[in-house]
Design brief:
It contains 13 helices and nine strands. By secondary structure, the chain is an alpha/beta fold.
């Protein structure tokens, strides 16, 4: 499968990044997950994130959910950068609830993020929220490129790239979401699609900035459909994404970057997913709206 790129896109890539864009492989080398390669992996702190989407309906319900979650954290959960041995927990409430939810959870060590931002600083953009706005109320993470933003709100890779760079420039951390649709999966172009999205969305992001970037692989066909992406298949895809990162940057970045899995994660599936060497956490949708279910996911069996 070949992708035809316009000269404008190629020019944008070359002009926007100090890292040369190189062709990426579309298959995972058989030797990639050998014991010698695994031994070289960086220690990556697990990260569990709950995306509440457009839920719940009221501020009081949001505070009740946040409060219930704080009571379910285990001894192995902690804030970012505390230790590679503990799990970082992030929740993404709707914008109107962020500030009060943050007040509810911050003493428990839970980090709060925003579900999206617009890449301009200020202006006549009715309904939009800027990076500086969410930064000013204590947001540390921002979702960029979530499949629902791509499909429902027509966020393309150029806009997603601008958001990623704006989040980083504002001193926050993007969780960059990528993944293929059911049609693309059936056409067996999953790797090509993911490589293209990752490459376009990281244009102009430097090696030094990559320490603050989290990748979330979310196969769109497995979100809310009842279809399942198995742990082994998800792990293989994460391994492939590291080969893409190695081509875009180097092996150090490929091994240090945290890659989450997001695709109808449940308490029943989380242990198998988190047992995989290339999966560093989960981006959870529906299950994060149930404190008991999300608590079980956060406290997965190691």
């Amino acid at each position: 499968m070949k992708f035809l790129l316009s000269s404008a896109v190629v020019t944008l890539w070359m002009a926007s990044s100090s890292d040369a864009f190189a062709p990426v492989p579309t298959t995972l080398p058989a030797s990639y997950l050998s014991s010698s390669q695994t031994a070289l992996q960086a220690n990556r702190q697990p990260i569990m994130a709950g995306n509440w989407k457009m839920n719940p309906a009221t501020e009081q319900e949001a505070l009740s959910l946040a409060g219930a979650l704080t009571k379910l954290l285990g001894e192995e959960t902690c804030a970012v950068d505390d230790s590679e041995d503990c799990t970082e927990v992030v929740i993404f409430p709707p914008h109107p609830f962020i500030s009060k939810v943050k007040d509810e959870v911050q003493e428990a060590g839970i980090t709060v993020g925003a579900q999206s931002i617009f890449f301009e600083d200020t202006g006549a953009y009715t309904g939009s929220v800027s990076a500086s706005m969410v930064k000013s109320i204590g947001v540390e993470y921002v979702l960029c490129g979530h499949s629902e933003r791509r499909t429902l709100f027509n966020d393309d890779d150029m806009a997603i790239n601008l958001k990623v760079k704006k989040v980083l420039a504002s001193g926050m951390k993007p969780i960059l979401c990528i993944g293929e649709t059911k049609e693309e999966y059936d056409l067996k172009i999953k790797n090509e699609v993911c490589a293209m999205q990752l490459s376009k969305d990281l244009v102009g992001v430097t090696k030094e900035q990559m320490k603050d970037v989290v990748i979330a692989y979310e196969p769109v066909w497995a979100i809310g459909t009842g279809l399942v992406c198995g742990a082994d298949e998800a792990n293989d895809t994460h391994g492939f994404l590291r080969t893409v990162l190695a081509n875009l940057y180097d092996d150090e970045v490929a091994q240090a970057t945290r890659i989450q899995y997001g695709g109808s994660v449940t308490p029943d599936s989380v242990d198998g997913l988190m047992s995989m060497p290339e999966i560093d956490g989960c981006l959870v949708g529906g299950a994060s709206l149930d404190a008991d279910k999300f608590g079980r996911i956060i406290n997965y069996v190691k």
